[in-house]
Specification:
Length: about 325
């Protein structure tokens, strides 16, 4: 059975042909059957589920509810959800969005990481698409070639500069994330930033360079961060990570050396951990080791190795 990570499993039909149909998009933005998912400061709107036993749901709103507010920002066309147009919209300009949307305490804006821990997987896929695109539009308002103001076109899937005619497209940054193993040990690290502050250890990771394969990136990043040489590399799975717009490409790698020399500019610590220590950490029963939760692909790289019992690079 294929593993579907948090922030994947998006059920929306991205409907590329509709994106290119300007008249259709214009009508869809005015269609009362269209649904819009509001974000405020990149936090997503949620609402309580229909009963006490159900979790929260995405806070979709009808087109008339949003149109009356006359938001300055145009909506982003996500695609078709159950055959109807679905949009995301940034309403950060509203001072008190819950009040101005006339919502009660069953609704709230929530940080997307926190929301993803409570939503089902398909809904987190929608959050990933919407947050990444909205964030890109917030940070790419001006042309990188001439500096002129750009305008959103094709439902938000391109920004066009009318001064120099350049087109700019949303980007996805590929990141290699890898669990390096040496028999019954694996290599985990703390980056010099957030992980060091939380005391958590995770798989090593780094951006893939231009003209570099995934395998080459795995070997280079591990050598740079830990001084460990890596041989065989095996792909595990991938995960969209919309903070801001990465694609995490998960791999296992086989260590050819074990001596650690860390890059102290990037890493607070890198260490080898036994399979049993990591197994206990996954159960939250190891007072000396914390690892990421199931929201992160690192958790699943670690868990698959713990459950593997030495088969991964056998032979």
């Amino acid at each position: 059975m294929t593993l579907i990570h948090t922030f994947a499993g998006n059920p929306i039909d991205r409907a590329d042909t509709k994106r290119r149909d300007a008249p259709w998009l214009a009508e869809a933005e005015k269609n009362p059957l269209s649904r819009l998912l509001p974000f405020s400061q990149l936090n997503v709107l949620l609402r309580d589920g229909p009963d006490l036993d159900s979790g929260p749901e995405l806070g979709w709103m009808g087109q008339p509810d949003i149109a009356r507010l006359e938001i300055d920002q145009p909506p982003i066309f996500l695609g078709l959800l159950h055959g109807e147009p679905a949009f995301a919209i940034d309403i950060s300009e509203l001072g008190d969005p819950i009040h101005e949307l006339n919502l009660d305490d069953r609704w709230q804006f929530e940080d997307c990481r926190m929301a993803a821990m409570r939503l089902d997987t398909p809904q987190t896929g929608i959050v990933a698409q919407a947050r990444a695109q909205l964030n890109w539009h917030r940070s790419h308002r001006f042309c990188s070639q001439c500096g002129a103001l750009t305008e959103q076109e094709r439902g938000g899937h391109v920004r066009r500069c009318h001064a120099c005619r350049a087109e700019h497209f949303p980007r996805t940054d590929p990141v290699a994330i890898m669990l390096i193993v040496d028999g019954d040990r694996c290599l985990l690290g703390q980056s010099a930033g957030r992980l060091a502050r939380t005391g958590m250890y995770s798989a090593l990771a780094g951006f893939i360079d231009q003209g570099e394969s995934i395998e080459e990136a795995v070997r280079r990043e591990v050598m740079e961060e830990a001084g460990v040489k890596v041989g065989r590399v095996r792909y595990h799975s991938s995960q969209p990570w919309p903070f801001p717009s990465s694609l995490m490409i998960g791999c296992h790698g086989e260590a050819l050396s074990t001596h650690i020399e860390i890059d102290t500019n990037e890493m607070a610590d890198v260490s080898w951990f036994s399979r049993e220590d990591v197994r206990l950490a996954l159960r939250e029963e190891n007072p000396n080791l914390r690892v990421p939760g199931a929201i992160a692909i690192a958790h699943h790289l670690i868990r698959s190795w713990v459950d593997d019992e030495g088969i991964l690079f056998a032979g």
